[in-house]
């Protein structure tokens, strides 16, 4: 029992140690940004990799979580944990309400409707609700947040620990989903929805639940963003960055467990490094994506994972019995 549990958690624990080790090699703000970004991409990675839905509306769900946390921390309270919880619940509520409408659409229309939602969200926060959101000036509440017990989220170093633990829990959750009947149903409805219906499962319910899980995760990332920066503006919902989670998903590896983390490291690293030297750094990211697509859509982690799982050729490394001296 213990051995099977260790085997199940081994990959996640290794990822935990790798990220914790990378923290020693990278600046703390960069590490926190990567973790938040990877959680942001996890939802879309699940949607695209398991259900086959590509979404250009992730900034809208990110904004739902961010503004739910921001409204609480700016107008009502001071506890960052409560803000994160409210962002999570807001994402859950919104996805439960709009999910039945969206998941009935085919993947191409699904992508466009979500993009339209991001445009609407941006317009609402910038213009319609400017009296509450303060428009482009945004909501500043960093100084309003109070210290929290156990892990003080107002301190970047402890926020990193909290976010890393949260990422580990999400990795475990998505890995568990992949191994359940529901995870198999998600893949089945992506490949052949008629057979899923024939077996007695509801494609609609499978997709609705996937939609809720994925975009609630995105809203959680939004609330983490709000708490970490202590500031939220309509820019977080900007449809101009709608392709970011799609790019990172493909870059890391569609449907892979650690693809969002690897993609976030690669994308954020290229953005921070190349943007200092080259103005149009997005060109190189696009060029890299073309190469990945031509190579088979496996992404960085999708390419590395089989190599890492391959056993070492010990027989070639060790001398034969007759050659030993």
Descriptive account of the structure:
Helix content is 73%, strand content 1%. With 325 residues, it is an all-alpha fold. The chain has two domains: 27-239, no CATH class; 243-308, no CATH class. Strands 1-2 form a two-stranded antiparallel sheet. Helix 3 (58-76) packs antiparallel against helix 4 and helix 4 packs antiparallel against helix 10. The chain is globular. Mean pLDDT is 86; it is low at 314-325.
The description of the largest β-sheet is: 2 strands, antiparallel
Cα-atom radius of gyration: 21 Å
Helix content bin: over 70%
DSSP strand count:
2
What structural category characterises the helix and strand content? Answer: mainly alpha
Number of helices: 15
User: What is the molecular shape?
Assistant: globular
Average predicted confidence as pLDDT: 86
- Strand order within the widest beta sheet: 1-2
Strand content: under 5%
| Helix/strand order | HHHHHHEHHHHEHHHHH
């Amino acid at each position: 029992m213990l051995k099977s549990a260790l085997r199940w958690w081994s990959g996640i624990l290794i990822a935990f140690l790798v990220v914790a080790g990378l923290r020693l090699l990278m600046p703390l703000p960069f590490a926190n940004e990567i973790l938040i970004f990877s959680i942001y991409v996890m939802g879309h990675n699940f949607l695209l990799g398991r259900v086959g839905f590509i979404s250009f509306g992730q900034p809208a769900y990110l904004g739902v979580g961010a503004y739910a946390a921001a409204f609480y921390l700016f107008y009502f309270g001071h506890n960052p944990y409560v803000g994160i919880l409210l962002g999570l619940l807001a994402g859950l509520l919104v996805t439960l309400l709009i999910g039945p409408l969206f998941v009935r659409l085919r993947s191409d229309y699904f992508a466009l409707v979500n993009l339209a939602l991001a445009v609407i969200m941006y317009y609402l926060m910038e213009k319609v609700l400017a009296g509450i959101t303060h428009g482009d000036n945004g909501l500043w509440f960093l100084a309003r947040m109070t210290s929290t017990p156990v892990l003080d989220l107002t301190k970047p170093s402890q926020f990193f620990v909290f976010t890393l633990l949260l990422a580990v829990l999400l990795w475990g959750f998505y890995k568990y989903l992949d191994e359940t009947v529901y995870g198999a149903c998600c893949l089945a409805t992506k490949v052949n929805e008629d057979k899923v219906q024939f077996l007695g499962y509801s494609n609609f319910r499978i997709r609705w639940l996937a939609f809720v899980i994925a975009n609630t995760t995105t809203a959680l990332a939004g609330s983490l963003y709000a708490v970490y920066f202590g500031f939220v503006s309509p820019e977080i919902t900007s449809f101009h960055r709608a392709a970011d989670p799609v790019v990172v998903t493909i870059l890391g590896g569609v449907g892979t467990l650690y693809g969002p983390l690897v993609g976030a490291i690669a994308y954020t690293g290229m953005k921070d490094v190349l943007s200092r030297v080259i103005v149009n750094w997005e060109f190189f990211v696009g060029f890299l994506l073309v190469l990945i697509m031509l190579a088979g859509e496996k992404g960085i982690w999708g390419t590395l994972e089989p190599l890492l799982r391959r056993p070492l050729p010990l027989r070639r490394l060790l001398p034969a019995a007759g050659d030993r001296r």
